[in-house]
Specification:
disordered N terminus, mainly alpha, two-stranded antiparallel sheet, single chain, 411 residues
């Protein structure tokens, strides 16, 4: 009996095994089936690779766009606003659109300065307004972040550059007993006689021992604040107390620093006379392409298509030079009793808010002087279409064409 049961058990197990085999898919092990499987796998791999390429291309495109924003943002601190954020400029411009006629009269100086800053921004970055309007909010915030990083990065680069260059210029011109270390700022400022002479307020005499001691001790009547223009802003570093505008913003070291930042450190060596701009013209030619076909690094003014010196760029360089001469080791807006924000604003307002027509004409002549010094006398690119049309060669061509037309009509 047990033997029969054992056979029945084996039969049941065999049947179960056969049923299990029927449940599994039937696999064809022929070469044709193997090739078909490999083909399917290759198609799947190709599809995945294509998707990956699309994702990587999109990521690379976004990275290029972000890098572009950072590169474009490098102009902001230099020529638009040293301390104001781009968001503040945009907010003020938006507020202006919402003003009624009565509210227009309540605009203050600070708001006006912000609005001029926004206009300057859109002239410097012509694409900005359109992009800002079309973007969604998250993209807009990211763009602003990249612009800010570029702006602050450029300011930091200029600070580092001028830290070394200013020490070199001061050592060469004043030949102090103890030369200024290009890498160390602790012995600069008013403790250093050469730096102190350049930082001294225009209304004070650094050659007076009482003045020097008073400034160093910060005693009453000798406290140095942003309410005084430092001597380095003046021609020959000397101010006329009866005419404090005479020679203002014509300081040699100020001009050297401007050219070092906006054109090139090598161009800062040539500041005597008005110049013909030969160095700038040569750099522009080289910047397009070298003889080997490799791109050559452009200078800042060429990158941002700057053809004239602007008030805010002068204010920027004045702050940079003042900081380079000081003993402060890291960039900040406050240095003791001196407020860099107010200093920058005072210089901007000097140029942008002159009190009357004569003052404005003096400002215009001063800016023309700056443009000649930095970019040379050549202003061909700045000529308007109308000005070119009225020049004799073009005028003659029009006259000859008119005569030809009259002769044709008479025939």
């Amino acid at each position: 009996m047990s033997h029969v049961e054992h056979q029945d058990g084996e039969a049941s197990a065999a049947e179960a095994h056969l049923e299990g085999q029927h449940d599994e898919p039937i696999r064809d092990s022929t070469p044709v089936a193997a090739a078909s499987l490999q083909a399917r796998q290759r198609r799947k791999i190709a599809q995945l690779e294509e998707k990956l390429e699309v994702l990587e291309a999109g990521r690379a495109s976004k990275e290029r766009q972000m890098n572009k924003y950072m590169a474009q943002g490098r102009a902001i601190r230099r020529v638009v606003a040293l301390f104001d954020n781009v968001e503040d400029l945009v907010t003020e411009n938006d507020r202006r659109y919402e003003l009624t006629g009565d509210e227009d009269t309540n605009i203050n100086v600070d708001q006006d300065r912000l609005q001029v800053g926004y206009v300057t921004l859109t002239l410097t970055l012509p694409w900005f307004h359109k992009k800002a309007v079309e973007m969604d909010y998250d993209e807009y915030l990211h763009m602003m972040k990249m612009l800010r990083q570029g702006a602050d990065g450029a300011r930091g680069d200029d600070t580092s550059k001028l830290k070394a260059l200013v020490s070199e210029w001061v050592n060469r011109e004043f030949k102090p007993d103890r030369l200024i270390d290009a890498d160390d700022k602790h012995l600069r400022g008013f403790t250093n006689d050469a730096c102190g002479r350049l930082l001294c307020p225009a209304e004070m005499d650094w050659n007076d021992p009482v003045t020097r001691a008073g400034i160093r001790d910060r005693t009453e009547g000798y406290v140095v604040t942003d309410l005084s223009f430092p001597a380095f802003l003046y021609d020959k570093y000397t101010a006329n107390p009866d005419d404090l505008e005479e020679g203002l913003f014509k300081g040699k070291i100020l001009l050297q620093a401007y050219k070092a930042v906006f054109t090139s450190p090598s161009s800062a060596k040539d500041i005597e006379g008005d110049g013909d701009g030969s160095d700038i013209i040569r750099n522009n030619r080289l910047a397009k392409k070298s003889a080997a076909g490799v791109k050559v690094k452009k200078h800042v003014a060429e990158i941002i298509k700057m053809r004239k010196v602007t008030p805010r760029s002068i204010a920027y360089i004045a702050c940079q030079v003042r900081f380079a001469l000081s003993s402060v080791t890291s960039w900040r807006s406050i240095d003791g009793d001196f407020d860099y924000i107010q200093f920058w604003r005072a210089i901007v307002d000097f140029f942008e808010r002159p009190p009357g027509r004569e003052a404005r004409q003096r400002v215009e002549r001063l800016l023309e002087w700056w443009t000649r010094k930095v970019f040379g006398r050549s202003q061909r690119k700045a000529l308007s279409t109308t000005a070119k049309a009225n020049m004799s060669i073009n005028a003659l061509a029009r006259q000859r064409a008119r005569r030809a037309d009259l002769m044709f009509d008479s025939d």
